Amino acid sequence: MRKFWNFTASAEENVLRIDGYIAETSWFEDDVTPKQFASELEKVKGDLTVYLNSGGGDCFAASQIYTMLKEHNGKVTVKIDGIAASAASVIAMSGDEVLMSPTSLMMVHNPASLIFGEVQDLEQGIEMLTEVKESILNAYTLKTGLSRAKLSHMMDAETWFSAKKAVDLGFADAMLFDQWETTDDEAEPFMWNSRSMVTAAVNAMRKKLPAKQTEPEDTPVPATTEGTPVEPLYHRLNLISH
């Protein structure tokens, strides 16, 4: 089993490092992995600093780790030093204080699963994923205070946040090493999602199309035309943007 976590303790600080794919080998296929994590966590007395750098993984493993850290008997400080994406973002929400490196990123999206079988199996899979999303929304809502509808839209669009944007939205409490006073003329913090990319691309394409022109109904249509008519292009762009 390849452990994705490591506990270290000293007189100065108790540290948990979570790196890489969460539960790549096993979590619920046997009872070894979760019990080992819980056993190591129980040995930690007092405050705990969690360094988090993970692109995600098993959302059920993340859920159990989230709960264990929330129940820890000391203050839990999560420091995102690389990326906290997908299931890792759920673990990040367990922190009493969440701090992000200026160069780090956070990403939220909908849960996914490989489902096969007949119609009933697929319908049950959809119901399961819907409930998993609701459970993830619970963690995001408790931390950020944002509405479930807004958070759900972010997940639908697969949204990425810079450290400052995560702080603005409440996913994080502060940015590490931030010694500068903020000013009104600073650039807008970075937030990106797939929907905004499609919308920007569609708008750019629209600008390059000639303006739509209206003609009297009795205007004769040329027998032959060159190129692609404008109207079908607008119709296709509208389909893309939705």
Task: Provide a descriptive summary of the structure in words.
This protein has 242 residues and is an alpha/beta fold. It folds into two domains: 5-189, 2-enoyl-CoA Hydratase, Chain A, domain 1, CATH 3.90.226.10; 192-212 and 223-242, no CATH class. It is built from eight helices and nine strands. It has helices at 32-42, 59-70, 87-92, 119-144, 148-156, 163-169, 194-208, 230-241, and strands spanning 5-9, 14-19, 48-54, 76-85, 97-100, 105-108, 159-162, 174-175, 191-193. It is globular and about 75 Å long. 29% of the residues are buried.
What is the topological layout?
Layout: E1 5-9, E2 14-19, H1 32-42, E3 48-54, H2 59-70, E4 76-85, H3 87-92, E5 97-100, E6 105-108, H4 119-144, H5 148-156, E7 159-162, H6 163-169, E8 174-175, E9 191-193, H7 194-208, H8 230-241
Parallel strand pairs: 2-3, 3-4, 4-5, 4-6, 5-8
Antiparallel strand pairs: 1-2, 6-7, 7-9
Helix pairs in contact: 1-2, 7-8
